[in-house]
Amino acid sequence: MNMGGEPVSTIREQFDTPVLYEADVLVVGGGPAGIGAALASARHGAKTILLERFGCLGGNQTLTFSNLFAFVDPRIQGGIIQEIIERLGKGGGIVLDCPEKVNRSGWGPEQGVHFFDGEYYKYLLDNMMKEAAVKVLFHSFAVATIREGNSIRGVVVESRQGRFAVTAKVVIDCSGLGEIAWKSGAPVIGEEGFADGECKGQHMGYGYAYYASGIDIDRFRAYAAKHQAEWGEFSAGRDLITQAKADGRVRLLRNSALIRERIGGRAWILNPSYSLQEGQHPWEVEAMTAGEIDLRRQARELHNLFKAEVPGFEDAVIEQTPQQPLMRDGHRILGEYILTEHDIRHVKSFDDAIAVCNMPPDIFYPNGGHKFAYDVTPYDIPFRCLISAEVDNLLAAGSSVSMDLVTWAAVRYNTPSVCTGQAAGTAAALAVRQNVSPKRLDVKMIQAALISAGQRTTVRTLPDAVIKDYERRAEEAKPLRI
Amino acid sequence: MNHVVEPERQIPVRYEVDVIVVGGGPGGIGAALGAARNGAKTLLVERFGCLGGSQTLTYSSSFAFVNNELQGGFVKEITERIDKGGGVVHDIPEKWDRGGWGPKQGVVFFDGEYYKHFLDKIVEEAGVKVIFHSFAVGTIRDGNTLKALIVESREGRFAIRAKVIIDCTGIGDIAWKSGAPVIGEEGFPDGPYKGQHMGYGWAFFIGGLDVKRYRAFEKENPEEWNQYISGRELIKQAKAKGELYLLRNSVILGERENGRVWVLSPGYTLKPGQHPWEVEAMTAGEIDLRKQAWSLHKLLKENVPGFENSYIEQTPVQPLLRDGHRIRGEHILTEHDMTTVKVHDDAITVCNMPPDYFLPNGTHEFEFNVTPYDIPYRCLVSTEIDNLLAAGASVSLDFKAWAAVRYNTPSMCTGQAAGTAAALCAKKNVIPRHLNVRTLQETLRSQGLRTSVKEVPERIIKQYERMAQEALAIKDYAG
Fold it and tell me: Do B1 and A8 touch (CB under 8 A)?
């Protein structure tokens, strides 16, 4: 008997797998990186297939309620991200009634953070993929690759209809966790978690946002106005939660909750968190299972506490919880270059830059601590970070890109993910057209294609005034307390 | 077809247990609790991140036609416990009772989010080991025995060994993938839709309804709106004008005092030759069902008082599959069994659910015209594989019986029976086919489950006979 999950023996398996699809470019994962990659690839004429494990696109932007694009700045990014924001706005998909406190916290519309309606976004993405002639396959879980020497001939998918293969000339890993690289045996980084410090060897744990509804907003806001320090800020409820924890009423990791309530009585609430133990990896079934159960418990306990103690929450319900915990750590490819904290703070620009990033690191420590300060000015992401060091036709985008942990904590965000996605998709399509490995592409050509599609590629072309803006912001940088 | 030969791999065996339950829906919950409470080391493998299956993931957050003198067992226990915990939804509109699908008929509606958390606790109490985000993709067979179940996950492929495996996947996925004989490949066996499968359904939630305003409107337009099946005229006209993209000609609205509305209408028809479990069908279905939901919501927002400031609150993780494979069991329960034979010596649960059909043309047929009937143990036992049982919608049934027994309430009952049987097999070291059915029946009865209509009080049977005579039909959404 073994209920613990430790391997006790092995079984041999071999497959004769049908090839059901043949693509030029195969994008694995339908989150922000996969969206950018698939759209860019298809728009550059490549026959593009997008594999998604669940039944909708958006990844953590829909499935785990990170319904936002952080720090969008048309002067910095441009390209597909700008197009999506505009189409969301036109279709009524942007959340306009964002409380002022969110701006005050530094994470609001004033800072370019666009909150949107996740359901509308799913629908918009279906339409955008159709327009671009991307072939989407839902409920398709990419589980392995077919390696031939230093290239990947295709990806193996498991589904309710069984196991099948999709072959492709270029594969883009947008799995969020460098899963395709890892499962193909390509070298990866990120196995170890924190590289140094108190949490060395530990991984960042899971986050969890949920929606509550049925809140009496007037009542809650009146209460918040009277207790401004505790309830009038984005990060709220510190005294109540701390006391309830001390009294044993709730078992929560964090001492406050981010609450973004809306006029109709709905609120997005971020608080439950799960720490991974040493030796545990965020992609493991045992960790994910324990995380799901514990995060659901935390959400319920917090909800019951609010119902009992916070005016306006008396009749509130938990409206919905996410499809999976929000993963904040994982593998990424080992690229031709690893972007480091030193690069983003000091080096800043690269000859082979393909996107500009204005996101500072957002670090969640295993002890429940959190570090975020807007203290970094914009920096380049080089193309080499998107290219596997070993596999000739494997690219990565989003949080699977080659970087150290601190850089990862920044570049993993949704906004830079769309940008690296657009770059990877563009490069893949160009590589197919020229019949070369993405590694052999002339970077200048990728850069030119990106610029003509509206995406900014390097800080070198940013007007001084823009850089000055960000320098001022970095000087004033106040940390956000969660 | 083009093939690739994948190199041989070594798969780690990560767990060894008595009983594996595959699928965390009502069948799997019943099976896991039944197995663990009867002493088996039990592992429940779930593809998504929560339990409940269609009861949580696709918003079928109810138990249909619960009657404690008819089912009992876990259905009784769970519906009572969620009610006590505040998880049962009591503000169900009266039109649902009138429609034959309300609390008056024993339909228990609950809060899906409450239910997820409740299920985490109840399986933990029973000592069930759950693994989430674990997709069971196949088995390792040795002759007529399943040596292991194979799971894919974000951490890779692994194997689990067990004495008995229970297929609670909702579509006989494990039986089919293991090469065991299955039924259900063909869809409708006869009639105009011969060879076609029942398509997908889709419920979603709308939030922000001004309930007072909507109810006032309903009162003024009772024929069209104060009905379980509603909105016929508006929908028909909008479709005629080309302003609405929707398969069906009506909508079911379950609005609550807090302005949340459960909405059922979008439907997706599978073409002849398409199977509901196929990636192409599921993908096309997802996209089409989302499109229908948005089109319908726009129509309601623009035309129905109370919906002006409403929004689509949430949509399901997958389409509601209403058809699929099931195991070929030692017996196939048929329509004739349900309507005429009724009683079986090896009965393990009683079912009061009549067939509920969703026809490919978008219409729906439901009639409460069947009195309670037994489900025999043989329907749970694979004809070919020695250590494979099935529960829920994967049980051995013909098409008509499937359209009834697939429901959540009977699923939990067949689950309880399959789990209990598996635990007894593990304890006695026999295969399910050789298990003494009397022992199983006695165990089930001692744990509160009624095993045969013979145990149901006469007065309850009479009640169902009356209902069948008056047979309240819920016919055609097509109007």
Answer: no
